[in-house]
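User: Hey, my collaborator sent me this sequence without any context and asked if I could get a structure. I don't really work with proteins. Can you help?
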Amino acid sequence: MTQLQSTSVAKTETEPPERVRSWAFYDCENQLPLEDPSLHEKLRDHLVMAGFECFGSICHKFGPGVTAVVIIGASCADVHTWPEKGTAIVRIFYCQDHSKHEGGNNDAKSDAFLRLMLELFKPKVATELPRLDIPVEQPLGLPRGWRIISALADKLTFRRIRSKRPASV
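Assistant: No problem. I've predicted the 3D structure and written it out in structure-token form, which is a compact way to encode the shape of the chain:
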């Protein structure tokens, strides 16, 4: 059984409605899904088994690896694989606001989805990457013209966006 490692992230006082959960799977014993161009079908099946409603899926093969994306009622889920390294990254984006309308708690559904993905890939090491809660409003009252370019755990990186204005005549 895979031991899931987790990084700790300080919780905010209020729970933002959007979530991104990501897991890195290393040394996967089951190599088949890492190279399978129908991975999106397995991803979709596992999301449905976890309780999410699915609306469409697509898969693209990049060399030996695969990228699969599934649109779910709460947002989307994706998997990116590197078979040559025995690695997969699994992410799910979902809205907590809609959970009561979609038949339950999306946090619990994402936990069930993780268990199913662990069974599929059988990684020797699985790490949950820092949870990223996406604010609905622009955080910290940033002035217009500034954008977040990186949001990892509790560290945000900002950049001033320069507009390209036509030269005056």
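In plain terms: The longest strand covers residues 18-28. You can pass these tokens on to your collaborator as they are.
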